[in-house]
Amino acid sequence: MKKIALACLFILVAASANAGVISDIQMGMVEEGTLQTPCDAVVTTVTYNGIWIAEEPYGAYNGIWVYMGSDEPIELVPGDVVCICGEYKEYYDLSEIDIVSAGLYGSVVKSGTQAVPTPSFVTALELATDGEPWESCAITIVDGMEVVEAPSSYGEWVADALDGTPVMFDDVFYDADTVMLGDCYNYATGIYTYTFGDFKLLPYVNGIDVTECGVDTEDTTLSSVKALYR
Predict the structure, then answer these.
(1) Which pTM does this prediction carry?
(2) Which candidate among 96, 204, 205, 209 keeps its CA 20 to 30 Å from the CA of 229?
(3) What pLDDT, on a 0 to 100 scale, did the predictor assign at position 224?
(4) pLDDT (tens digit, 9 = 90+) per residue, 98-137?
(5) pLDDT tens-digit map of 169-210
(6) 3-state DSSP of the chain
């Protein structure tokens, strides 16, 4: 335990000079099982057992899942700036920083607040071609889509983009009971993740813009969506 404590203390002191901790992890430049401490990272999304964080420049390879366990309520909110110490793991091929496995010395320290970073704009085809850069990032899929597979018993459903590219969704935040076969979307915003062998979008509670099928979605997909974050 002393070794872990000293290692975390050393990393915390040095972290301010080590920009790009998250991107180094996501690009395969960090050894699994080592202690990692991104500092000046921003919380983008919170759930009952952990947080997603991002570091500048808030794009590809710059987001990661932080597992904190469910023993205590998580009091962080999107926009909180944090410095964390935890063990880097590949959890069924999902990159994560595990606070729990770092023992009593794993830590998440809030150092301030800022505006929540704007989600990155990504096409369904870009995700299908290579989803790895966007793992654990907050994104907006800018394609118009139509639901082609209704939600399963696990709360997962599939929508096809206008070019035929499939996108899988999961109901971690969104109410899957409201999803109907044939629904059409202008765009969808949430956290992109990897679970059970598939990349999926976890749309936010209000992260899907449902529209009438047959309505031209091209303008909404590009110009109108971007205008939401100005």
Answers:
(1) 0.88
(2) 96
(3) 62
(4) 999 999 889 999 999 999 999 999 999 999 999 999 999 9
(5) 999 999 999 999 999 999 999 999 999 999 999 999 999 999
(6) CHHHHHHHHHHHHHHHHCCCHHHHHHCCCCCCCCEECCCCEEEEEEECCEEEEECCCCCCCCEEEEECCCCCCCCCCCCEEEEEEEEEEEECCEEEEECHHHHHHCEEEEEEECCCCCCEEECHHHHHHCCHHHCCCEEEECCCEEEEECCCCCCEEEEEECCCCEEEEECCCCCHHHCCCCCEEEEEEEEEEEECCEEEEEEEEEEEEEECCCCCCHHHHHHHHHHCCC
Place of tokens 């800018």: 142
- Please count the residues of the chain: 230
